[in-house]
Amino acid sequence: MDLAIVGYVACALVILLLAIRVPIAFAIGSVAVGAIFIVFAFRTGTFQPDRAMWTTLSLAFSSSFDLVHSYDLSMIPLFIALGHIAYKAGITTEIYEAARVWLARLPGGVAIASIAGCGGFSAISGSSIACASTMGRICTPEMLRLNYDPRLATASVAAGGTLGSLIPPSVLFIIYGIFTETSISKLFLAGILPGLLSLIGYALVVVFWVKRSPEIAPVSNIVFTGKQKLRAAIGTWPAVLLFIMVVGGIYGGIFTATEAAALSLLFATLLGIARGKIRLREVVPLLRDTMVTTGAIFFIAACAKIFVALIALTGLSGSLVGLLDASDIGPLTFLLMVSLIYILLGMFLDPIGIMVLTLPLMIPMVESYDMNLIWFGVVIVKLLEIGLITPPVGLNVFVLAGVLEERKVDIGTIFAGVMRFLVSDLIVLILLIAIPAISLIIPLSM
C-alpha cells in the first residue's frame, strides 16, 4: 500500500468535510485517527485491527498531549486573559479616546481614531476577532451617532480589527511558531513594522475616501482644549507601558514572550483593581471566558497535531516536495499559489483552522526553497488577516454586525466599505513579499 496515497485521500476527505460545514477540529481529528488506523492495520499486508487500535490511540494521545503541554502554548491563555482584563480596566478604550480627542477636527478623524484604537487593542489582546468585537461596541456607534456613512463607520473597525493578527502579541504567531518550531519572540518582533504599515495604509484609505466624498464623514463641531488633549495623551500610559513591557522586554532579552505575557497580565489586573474598575469577584467570569476561548483553540491545535503525525507517517510532505521539484516552479510562482490558496480558504474558514490545516503541508515546501520562516510567517499571517474581511465569510465582518445591537448595519453594507481596505491590504502584502527586510530588520537586530 502506497502510504502517500493514504495521505492524499485523507487531505481530500478533510476538504470534503469542511465543505459540508463540519467543524475543523472534528474534521481534522477524525480523518487523521482513521487514516493512521488504516496505515497500521494494513502494515503487514493483512488486516489486523486489534494491533492497529492500540498503536493508533497511543500515537494520537502522545501527539496531542505533547502539544497541549507545550511551554510556548501557555502564552495563549495569558494573552487572551490580558485582553479581557485590559478592556475591563479601561486600558484599551483609553487609546481610542486619546486618538479621538486629537483627531476629532480632521476629516474622517473618528474613523482614523478607531483604527488607531484597534491597533492599540491589538498590541494588548493579540486577537483580531476580540478586537473587532470590542472596538465595534465602542467606535462604530459613536461614528453612526456623528452621521458617518455606515460603510465607513463599520469597515474601518472591521479592517482595523484585523491588526490583532500582525501587531504583537498575536495568537496566530504563537501557533505558527509552535507548528514550525521557530522563535515566537522573533515572530512578534517581525510583526511590528508590517502591523504599523497596515495601520498607516488603513488610515490613508480613510483620508482619500473622505477627501473624495466629504459627505461620508461630517467634521465634528466639538473643540477640545490643549489641556484636554494633554490629559487624554497621558491617560494612555498603561497601554504604552504594557506594549513596552512585551516588545521591549523581548527585544532586550529581559524575559521570554511567556514571561512577558504573565507580567503584563499581573500588571493589568493590579492596575484595574487599584483603579476600582475591577473587583476581585469580577475576575472569575473574565477567566471563565478565557478558558472557553482557550479550550477551543487548544482542541483545534491538538487535532491538528494528530494530523501532523499522519503526514509524517505517510511521507506526504516529502511527496509534495518531490512534485514541486519535478514541476520546476519558481519561488515567486510558489508564493503566488500560496497567496491564492490562503485567500480562497480565508473566504470560508477561520484563520486558526486554515493555519493548522495547511502548515504541515506547506512548511516542507517552503524549506525546499530555502525561504526564511520568520518572513514567511509574516506573509502567512498577513494573508490570514486579509481573509478576516474577505467576502463571503469574513469573520470580522460578521462579528461586527453581530455586536451592533441598537443600530443594525447589514452585511452587504459592511463588505461594500471593506473593499477599499482590501486594496490597501493587497498593496502591503506585495511590499512584504518584495521587501523581506520590512519583516526581518527588527528580529535580526536582536
UniProtKB/TrEMBL annotation:
Signal peptide residues are none
Q: Which keywords accompany this UniProt record?
A: Cell inner membrane, Cell membrane, Membrane, Transmembrane, Transmembrane helix, Transport
Q: Which domain of life is it from?
A: Bacteria
Which GO molecular function annotation, any one, does this entry have?
Answer: transmembrane transporter activity
- Topological type in the membrane: Multi-pass membrane protein
Q: Name one GO cellular component term.
A: plasma membrane
Task: Tell me the ranges covered by the TRAP C4-dicarboxylate transport system permease DctM subunit domain, including all copies.
Answer: 13-438
- The UniProt transmembrane annotation reads 12-40, 110-131, 152-176, 188-210, 230-254, 290-314, 334-361, 373-401, 421-442
Entry keyword Transmembrane: yes
The record, for PANTHER family, names:
C4-DICARBOXYLATE TRAP TRANSPORTER LARGE PERMEASE PROTEIN DCTM, SIALIC ACID TRAP TRANSPORTER PERMEASE PROTEIN SIAT-RELATED
For this entry, the protein name equals TRAP transporter large permease protein
